[in-house]
């Protein structure tokens, strides 16, 4: 396992299954620390650290979803246990591409959970990665998922801005074939007040799997997970069985 890409905050080697947690745009592995703790010891949480942030801040940023997914796929060992993929926002499409790669490699995931992201077949005219710094900050405020400290401190914000731009570019330019589909079960989580994804846009993921499909709507906005850790934990443990 490549520890640059994969962090295990709460290792659970005896857990019957593992879950790969893929962060949102601008997010780091630490965004899932609380969820990782809640999943222990029922699931072995492997949290992805993309290049260009925290201890990887000096590495080149990636601006392509498939490159991110390939990096994760190459970093993951096949340890024989059932594997869940959970990605939030940008992480959802990275998880989708990761599932496609793993299936081609004969290591299909047990299930894919796409959270807080509209289906690839839907379209919105979004170009946050081309905005000036004030415009990027305005988008983060709209989503209410960023520590206000980063938005109020110009030096801190300047530090995270390159990773934000790279991630937004990756997700906003991402395209896949309308009929691209995984064979594993696909479950979509979405907040009922998410400004980035309507329930119908989330339901459109149905065409992206030939397996079972389910849609679960949680109270909250784009970062509903912050207030629904217990509910999401229970759902992921149930899906691993």
TrEMBL record:
Residues 20-237 form the Thioesterase TesA-like domain. InterPro entries: AB_hydrolase_fold, TEII, TesA-like, Thioesterase. Keywords: Hydrolase. Pfam families: Thioesterase. The keyword Cell inner membrane does not apply. SUPFAM superfamilies: alpha/beta-Hydrolases. Belongs to the thioesterase family. This is Thioesterase II family protein.
């Amino acid at each position: 396992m490549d520890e640059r890409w994969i962090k295990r905050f709460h290792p659970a080697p005896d857990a019957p299954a593992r879950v790969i947690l893929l962060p949102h745009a601008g997010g780091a592995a630490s965004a899932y620390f609380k969820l990782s703790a809640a999943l222990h010891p029922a699931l072995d949480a492997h949290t992805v650290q993309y290049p260009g942030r925290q201890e990887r801040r000096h590495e080149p940023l990636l601006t392509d979803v498939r490159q991110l997914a390939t990096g994760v796929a190459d970093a993951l060992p096949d340890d024989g246990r059932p594997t869940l993929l959970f990605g939030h926002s940008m992480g959802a499409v990275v998880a989708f591409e990761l599932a496609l790669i793993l299936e081609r490699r004969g290591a299909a995931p047990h299930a894919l959970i796409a959270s807080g992201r509209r289906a690839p077949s839907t379209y919105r005219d979004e170009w946050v990665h081309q905005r000036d710094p004030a415009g990027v900050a305005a988008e983060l405020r709209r989503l209410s998922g960023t520590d206000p400290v980063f938005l109020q401190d110009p030096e801190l914000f300047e530090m995270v801005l390159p990773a934000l731009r790279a991630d937004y570019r990756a997700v906003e330019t991402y395209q896949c074939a309308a009929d691209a589909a995984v064979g594993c079960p696909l479950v979509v989580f979405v907040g009922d007040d998410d400004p980035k994804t309507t329930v119908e846009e989330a339901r459109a993921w149905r065409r992206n799997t030939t397996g079972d499909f389910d849609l679960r709507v949680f109270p909250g906005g784009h970062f509903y997970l912050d207030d629904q850790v217990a509910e999401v934990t229970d759902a992921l443990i149930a899906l691993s069985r």
